## 1
Amino acid sequence: MDFNLTEEQKMFVETVYRYGRDEVQPLCEEADLEGEFNFTIWKKMGNMGLLGLPLPEKFGGSGANIVTCCLAGETLGHAGVDGGHLLAWGAHTYLCASNIMNFGTEEQKEKYLPKLATGEWIGCMGLTEPSAGSDAASMRTTAIKDGEEYILNGSKTFITNAPVSQVMVIFATVDRSKKHEGITAFIVEKGTPGVSTGKPFHKMGCRASSTSEIFLEDCRVPAENVLGGEGKGWRIALSGVEWDRSTLMSPFVGGARYSLDLCAKYANERIQFGRPIREFQAIQRRIADARVFLEAARLVVYRVAWAKDQGKMLNPLEAAVGKVYVGDVGFEVASQAVQIFGGYGFMHEYPVERNFRDAKLAPIGGGTSDIMRMIVSRIMMTS
Ligand SMILES: Cc1cc2nc3c(=O)[nH]c(=O)nc-3n(C[C@H](O)[C@H](O)[C@H](O)COP(=O)(O)OP(=O)(O)OC[C@H]3O[C@@H](n4cnc5c(N)ncnc54)[C@H](O)[C@@H]3O)c2cc1C
């Protein structure tokens, strides 16, 4: 196994880190406190070519492989970019644009990808429903074929970017009795009569991402907007989940690195009992453990990314192990960072506080840690 980055990847990491730290990070604290999506930050990410990173160059993307996408996520998190904008980036790039890239027709790709690649259009993916979260396949949103159109009815919730997006990948069932085989993905454009979004939710973390419900009321979508074929939606949803367990976890690794860097600096500066707190074993132990867990989490993320780049089908067990581990480590490191900062870590002014709130999403979004553990144990006990 070769753990080295190519020269090109090293340069990419340096450039993204500098850009994230100097251009984006200074705007993040305010965006988080206001709890609002920041279009200036979005534009800056677009200018860096990050919004279309995995998309083919002919559609305006950068054609990056998955390891490079993970490097971007980790590096932005490490540079101090807030979880909200990283979540918005992930949902746009990997849950919307990548699904169109992987499952779309040529016409769909030509129509949507160039504008998604620059960020001029923002994308989202609506799978979760008020009564279908972990059990997403029990969705109630229906799609009834009517001539050359489908009529969509139902609602989605917790959808990242919904209030700011122009392009939505929406899952609905054409026949509930068919269960997974009835689920179909549609590209729904904002402005289509019958589609609307709710007011952005007030969230604990990732606050600068804009999250809301999506309502579909007799929303007529042309049949040409079916993504990947009727009844093929579950495969697309699972593919999104696979992105979730690799690329979308990389910002949490980066966020943990950022927190840890801040801790090491703080432990040198903070004096108690006449000594820098770095001299206390309790602090040393916390920092060392966090570093150990972080190293393992990085390996897990890049192993999943590498396997996807090789075109290897991942064992669902390995992907679930990755998701649960990175989710738990991301949150644990963020929590220990707050502890090291003491009372200051509890204050908004200190980025470890924001990181702690943002990191709580990792064991929830894209499949909770409980569901990941259920997958792991089920596979282990049936194989
Ligand atoms: C900030 C944010 C952004 C999101 N963005 C998106 C998005 O862009 N698109 C999208 O489609 N969705 C999105 N989601 C939804 C997210 O994927 C779901 O919240 C998640 O899958 C869990 O579903 P739920 O919230 O309905 O929880 P539930 O499924 O109701 O779970 C509640 C609790 O029960 C546990 N539980 C449920 N079933 C089992 C079981 N069988 N065994 C053991 N424990 C179980 C869960 O682990 C959890 O602790 C987002 C959520 C958040 C918070």
Note: DSSP finds eleven helices and ten strands in the chain.
## 2
Amino acid sequence: MKKIIYFILIISLLFCVSCKSKHNKTLPPKEIYLTFDDGPCNNTLKILEVLEKYDIKATFFVVGTMVEKHPDILKKTYELGHSVGLHSYSHIYKKIYSTNQELQQDVLSCYNAVKKVIPDFSGAIYRFPGGSFNLTNNTKQAVLDLGFTYYDWNASTMDSEGKFTPYELYKNAVNTSLNKNKIILLAHDTKPNVTLALEDIIKHFLNGGYTFKKL
Ligand SMILES: [Zn+2]
């Protein structure tokens, strides 16, 4: 009788171990990509400081006109090893989305503005102003045709959607990221409250076992 019980115990133990290893193998890694749009601006410097403190690299989708105003800040962002993506030259929806030709011209103007500051820039990532969610395939193809890959987001601090306190921005980031293993979080370096929320956001995802990555 004892032997049978031992046998059952060993079998169930083996079953558990194999289940666990299988489970571990299929579990996708937990990753978060912090993305900041609409800069560079003076506030970007504060964000860079926080990121440096935690040794985290992020992605900055920059606007051409802002690059021309703050070339040194873009240069610093790039030299610190963050990813630089394009986010239009003018950021004026009406103009950018009037025709595909206008859109492509705007992307290239942004690219040239960045290239002027960072001669060895070879980045080819893009974020549509407002995201690609409501755009036609034809519009999206215009950017793909230029050789760019575009990224939206699946979580947001919602910092461009109203006047949120730093704590509310933090809560928005947490709530919109629930149950996601790969998070692309939207924030804007032009919104000072995001800087104040950033440490709490970082700590939350570090505690949750997420790895911070750049696009
Ligand atoms: Zn934007």
Note: Residues 37-38, 87, 91, 129 surround zinc ion (CB under 6 Å).
